[in-house]
Amino acid sequence: MASLRGAISLSAPTVPVFGLAVFIALLAVLARYLGLDIPWVSGHVAETLLIAFAVLSAGVLLKGL
């Protein structure tokens, strides 16, 4: 079995970071599927979801964030 020495240490994101990521993703879903006109989000749904994923990833990769 491979050694895990030097592996990336992951941690659970804090509640505010998780909530922010969910909120951003929810804006993208509302703009895409309900047709809500949300400034910038409506024209950039994929990018908005990418931002939400980046926020969540940062929360997992950076300890204490």
Quick rundown:
This protein is mostly helical.
Give helix and strand order, one letter per element, not per position: HH
Low-confidence stretches: none
Mean pLDDT: 90
The secondary structure category is mainly alpha
Strand content: under 5%
Number of strands: 0
In whole angstroms, how far apart are the ends?
32 Å
Helical run tally: 2
Q: Shape, please?
A: elongated
Helix content: 55-70%
Report the major sheet. none
Number of domains: 1
Radius of gyration: 15 Å
Topology:
Elements: H1 15-33, H2 45-61
Question: Can you put this structure into words, describing what you see?
Answer:
The protein is mainly alpha-helical and 65 residues long. 55% of the residues lie in helices and 0% in strands. The chain has helices at 15-33, 45-61. It starts with 14 loop residues before the first helix and ends with a helix. The relative contact order is 0.22. The model has no long low-confidence stretch (mean pLDDT 90).
Summarize this structure as a short list of keywords or feature phrases.
single chain, mainly alpha, 65 residues
